[in-house]
User: Which sequence fits this backbone?
């Protein structure tokens, strides 16, 4: 699993500091909204081709790890 800062970045000059996938202007929250809305990861990746499958999976793994560590 890649470190989260290799996948997600915050920069005040990009979307006012919204966390985005590194090298894109695609907010991480957008992927979560897609999944929450019942769309698949493949649909998200199709709509946002600048995000790689590897980056999306890594970001989800990091999010899962953070949630699990907070519960443990």
Assistant:
């Amino acid at each position: 699993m890649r470190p989260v800062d290799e996948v997600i970045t915050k920069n005040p000059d990009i979307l006012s500091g919204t966390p985005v996938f590194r090298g894109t202007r695609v907010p991480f929250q957008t992927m979560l909204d897609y999944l929450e809305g019942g769309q698949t990861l493949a649909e998200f990746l199709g709509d946002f081709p600048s995000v790689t499958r590897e980056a999306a999976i890594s970001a989800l793994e990091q999010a899962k790890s953070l949630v699990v560590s907070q519960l443990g």
About this structure: The two ends are 20 Å apart (CA to CA). The CA atoms of residues 32 and 38 lie 10 Å apart. The first helix runs from residue 4 to 7.
